[in-house]
Amino acid sequence: MRYQFATLALIALAPVTLAATAPAAAQAAPGVPILPDATVLDVVATGQVTRTPDVATLRAGVVTQALTAAAALGENATRMERVVAALRAAGIAPRDIATASVGLQPQYRYAENQPPAITGYQATNTVSVKFRDIAKSGTALDALVKAGANQIEGPQLTIDQPEAALDAARVDAIKRARARADLYAQAAGLRVDRIVSIGEASESDGGPRPQMVYARAAKAADASTEILPGESELTATVMVRFLLK
Questions:
Q1: pLDDT band at 220, cuts 50/70/90?
Q2: Residue 207 falls within a domain, yes or no?
Q3: Does residue 189 share a domain with residue 145?
Q4: Mind listing the pLDDT tens digit for each residue in 71-105?
Q5: 45, 176 in Cβ contact below 8 A?
Q6: Is the overall model pTM greater than 0.70, yes or no?
Q7: Distance of alpha carbon 218 from alpha carbon 25, whole angstroms
């Protein structure tokens, strides 16, 4: 009795090919029974959903310079205390404030045919800050600058608890896989009998997504920094094997 094994790979909406293979090739998937007069169809499909990020993470810090290392560090520590106090006053929880880096580097003067000469020292101290209310993060940034922060990087926008959204993307991926299987089965004069196996190939929780700080172009003295969250795309890719008859 002759067996037929056809493999079809589908990635998103890309074109696919259908090819009959010998029984030996069908053995590449152990544990999957190949029935007489049955065709195996492999589909790879990606489901996606969009969500609005609800967490913004950025780095804020102080850079100071002085003639001596002690003076640079001392001034830096004083200004950094005011920055951290401003964060706490803005309602940022201690668990959302973490030291990211501390540095001290000599500053040099270069002259032709002479060794570099140290002219002073630069001290840096940076904290990583997580804002769980993006709408209020711009106001907090302005407060940081007023408190003495002169170095800001970020923010990176993420979704705090992405599992529910990822589950929705997984459901969408299965629906897409089944729809494609029905389409190709009908085109081949067959029908989908059942699902043989399901595997998850990959997932993406949509972040972290870097975004530049946006400041409104206004001449008013009270113009404030604004963070725009936009939308993030979460995806899940599944591999589904169908049995066609």
A1: very low
A2: no
A3: no
A4: 999 999 999 999 999 999 989 999 999 999 999 99
A5: yes
A6: no
A7: 67
Q: Does residue 18 lie in a domain region? A: yes
Distance, first Cα to last Cα, the chain: 16
Q: Which letter does DSSP use for residue 96 in this model?
A: G
Q: How many domains does the chain have?
A: 2
Residue pair 65/243 in contact (Cβ under 8 Å)? The answer is no
The CA–CA distances, whole Å, from 185 to 14, 18, 93, 191, 241 equal 17, 11, 56, 5, 13
CA 104 to chain centre: 31
3-state secondary structure of 202: strand
pLDDT of residue 35: 62
Contacts of 229 (CB under 8 A, 6+ apart): 52, 53, 54, 56, 134, 157
pLDDT at 229: 84
Count the alpha carbons within 13 Å of 26 in the hemisphere toward its beta carbon.
20
Domain hosting 36: range is 5-51+161-199+231-244
For residue 232, the cross-strand partners are 51
Residue 158 tokens read as 């993420």
